[in-house]
Amino acid sequence: MTDPASHISPSGKPRILTGDTPTGQLHLGHWVGSLENRVRLIDEYECFFLIANMHAFTTRADKPDGIRRSTLDIIKDWIACGMDPDRSTFVLQTEIPAIAELTWYLAMLLPFNRVMRNPTLKTELETKELGDNYSFGFPMYTVGQCADILIFRPELVPVGEDQLAHIEPCREVARRFSQTYCGVDPQTEDADYVSAGGLFPIPEGKVGRVARLIGTDGVNKMSKSLNNAIFLTDTFKQIKKKLGGLYTGRQTMDEPGDINNSLFQYVRAFIDDAGRVAELEKKYAEGDNIGDGHIKVEVAEHIDRLLGPMRARRADFEGEKGDEKILQILREHTRRANEAAEETLYLAKQAMRLDFGIRELSFPG
Ligand code: TRP
Q1: Which residue's CA lies nearest to atom 5 of ligand 1?
Q2: Is 50 a pocket residue for ligand 1 (Cβ < 6 Å)?
Q3: Most C-beta atoms within 10 A of its C-beta, which of 40, 190, 292, 323?
Q4: CB of 163 closer than 6 A to ligand 1?
Q5: Is there a single domain that holds both residue 242 and residue 182?
Q6: Residue 4 lies in a domain
């Protein structure tokens, strides 16, 4: 019997899997919530970064061109922000058939009502005003997300706070699979699942340093659809203009301000000089001759300094030539991603007594 654990990560490093749905460009909320962690952990872990383009069809089945465009744009954003394709594997979901196949098997192990209780799914139904008219595929994507993760057997899933609700069923189904098909005792501690003979590590979600970045409307979470986002591609002028509109309700420079307002969330999130942050907080709280406008420009300058190198890296991938470069990277990475995914699928089917071995997978190769 193959020992599943021995096959994880030939690099010897634990794995990360995380990803984005291509429904637009990435913004600062993504940066502080997840991207920054990905860049920081890229060498410590063997990283798989997934474009959930199949999931994009759950609400946009009639917009294939937009999904394709956004797929390439998000990969450009990734490279721009430091997710180096030479040190990680990009996974284009629709090129990895093992994910769709595993989705079916996992769907049998998740109660339907459990899926429908997912709070993120419920919020999405509301904010996207899907009513009763959502597709069958829409709730299905939460099972798909479990498969996205488990097919790579990662230990860590760096995500924004809203995605934690998707990690929980993934952990549940991972336990259930190993209990049902690998003989793992239900009393086993999460950390011991693999050593107890289970196929999947029980993955943990990891939220970035700012769980929920407020948008430039000063009210809602930053989100492309709410028109309150600062995109990674924005220029200094655009950043300044967007921040300029951030409403705090404060009138004058000598009025004591609330250092827990939305502007100060930006101060703490983007001014990386603790001394300066403390000074601004003190002056603001005391109403010591400091205007909102001034602070906004200072924040904008820091954001611009963060985004400047990103814009520079992105310049290498402009236009159609840039698209072609991205496709070239994807072709190479897809082979690696399929090898890793098919290894897990092989082991899963073996555990499920589906090891007929008639169709060839890349593993065992
Ligand atoms: N649902 C995630 C989002 O919209 C994207 C995603 C799909 C994902 N599969 C994933 C994130 C697996 C982490 C792990 O942001």
Answers
A1: 20
A2: yes
A3: 292
A4: yes
A5: no
A6: no
**Ligand 1 contacts CB of residue 38 (under 6 A):** no
Q: What is the pLDDT of residues 32-78, one digit of tens each?
A: 999 999 999 999 999 999 999 999 999 999 999 999 999 999 999 99
Rounded to 5 degrees, what angle do the CA atoms 66, 69, 70 make? 85
Q: Is residue 224 part of a domain?
A: no
Is 177 among the domain residues?
Answer: yes
Task: Measure CA of the first residue to CA of the last residue in the chain; give whole Å.
Answer: 16
Q: How many CA atoms lie within 13 A of 10 on its CB side?
A: 4
Strand 15-20 relative to strand 46-51: parallel, antiparallel, unpaired?
A: parallel
Query: Is the CB of 34 inside a 6 Å radius of any atom of ligand 1?
Result: no
Note whether 142 and 271 are same-domain residues.
no
pLDDT for position 253: 92
- Angle, helices 164-181 vs 319-351, to 10°: value is 30
Instruction: Transcribe 75-95 into DSSP letters.
Output: HHHHHHHT--TTSSEEEEGGG
Q: How distant, in Å, are the alpha carbons of 170, 194, 270, 324 from that of 314?
A: 34, 40, 21, 14
The domain containing residue 144 runs over which residues? Answer: 15-212+320-351
Number of domains, the chain: 2
Query: For the domain that residue 74 is a member of, what is the CATH number?
Result: 3.40.50.620
pLDDT tens for 132-189 read: 889 999 999 999 999 999 999 999 999 999 999 999 999 999 999 999 999 999 999 9
From the CB of residue 322, how many other CB atoms can be counted at a distance below 10 Å? Answer: 18
Residue 45 contacts residue 156 (beta carbons within 8 Å): yes
Q: Are residues 203 and 337 in the same domain?
A: yes
- Say if residue 157 is in the same domain as residue 276: no
